[in-house]
Predict the 3D structure of the following.
Amino acid sequence: MIEGTFYQMECDTCNATGVLHKETGEQIPTSTVLIAMRQLIKRQRQQIEHLKKNQMPHDPYGHLNDRRGGKHRMD
């Protein structure tokens, strides 16, 4: 995508995928780019799920005193 000051238009060189062959600078077939992007998204989703499973519960007031019925900033 080429972005000018007041417009956007698709790039003919990369067929609007934003990806070119590293060595030749030629366009990569859209189907190949699509497969690679799907694999990347799948790996990222798996990583997010892994991080969610191993995340410790967050208690922003954990360090505060628990006396008098609750955790309040002014305890």
